[in-house]
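Justification of computing resources. Each target in the renewal requires a structure prediction run like the one illustrated here; the chain below, 87 residues long, is used simply to show the kind of job we budget for.
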Amino acid sequence: MADNNYDYPTDTPVVADDMKLTVPWGQWFSRTHRAAFSFQQSGPTSERPTSVLWIGRFFFDTTLNKPIWIKQVKPAVLWCDATGATV
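Resulting structure tokens:
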């Protein structure tokens, strides 16, 4: 099986005998889609993402009118701007 969430499942065919996407590939496409979608997100501070979070994840905060990134995920999510200041 894959070593991390973004490695594609090389040990599994993409399509099963019934011509449907196999579960491992369906999961991989779903994770990849969520990750790709996150790179274009923007909105007010109140709509900052609360799922599919990782350190360095980008969000353009339209309330602050600037890009911000996740600085810390646990124990609480901390966002920072380009100067490193928590926002």
